[in-house]
Specification:
Elements: H1 3-45, H2 54-64, H3 71-91, H4 95-110, H5 112-115, H6 117-120, H7 130-136, H8 138-149, H9 164-180
Subcellular location: Membrane
Keywords: Membrane, Transmembrane, Transmembrane helix
GO cellular component, one term: membrane
Length: 185
């Protein structure tokens, strides 16, 4: 047996084991990571002057609630909401409630992009400010929340039943017909 084939067989076994481990644990780790992020950023918002997004969050909440929540009440509301979401994700309890609260929170968190674009894109060539970048990264949180939401009814990720080499062979054979077609003028 040549060294290349031996190495590839070993890598294929490792890759398959790693895939099975990821299938078994990735959603749980994603949920816990999201819980840490929401709880951590939520707790920061309870302390005036610590959150880098405090002024923008307060102003946005004031606008979205038509002035009903303003100042430190707005910040406490956002902080409490994020802490509840974080606890739901960390514990795995009331996950459906946590995901729906997160959907509401994300609408509020991303709304400054539409409400205050002149304040968030002031750099050269309308580059986003640090606050805008902070908001734009929330797209990742939305996607992660969608993945978590897809599993609350018991749905699971399924491991790929074939190894790396088999998977690559199938993908290459699927691509061959597409590569053989040529464009004629």
């Amino acid at each position: 047996m040549n060294i290349g084939k031996k190495w590839m067989d070993g890598f294929d076994r490792f890759d398959t084991r790693m895939n099975h481990w990821l299938v078994a644990h990735s959603i749980t780790l994603l949920r816990i990571g999201m819980g840490i992020v929401f709880l951590g950023f939520g707790v920061l918002k309870f302390f005036p002057g610590i959150s880098p997004i405090e002024v923008l969050a307060t102003h946005t909440t004031n606008v979205l609630t038509f002035g009903v929540l303003s100042g430190h009440y707005a910040m406490d509301f956002v902080a409490g909401l994020e802490c509840i979401i974080g606890i739901c994700f960390l514990t795995g309890r009331f996950l459906r409630v946590g995901v729906w609260l997160m959907a509401v929170q994300m609408i509020g968190a991303m709304s400054p992009l539409f409400l205050f674009p002149a304040e968030l894109f002031v750099g050269p060539y309308h580059a986003p400010t640090l606050a805008a970048q902070y908001i734009i990264k929330d797209i990742i949180l939305v996607a992660a929340g969608m993945v978590i939401a897809s599993t609350w009814t018991g749905a699971r990720i399924v491991a790929e039943p074939q190894g790396l080499r088999q998977s690559l062979r199938k993908r290459v054979s699927d691509m061959r017909p597409k590569l053989k077609t040529t464009v004629t003028v």
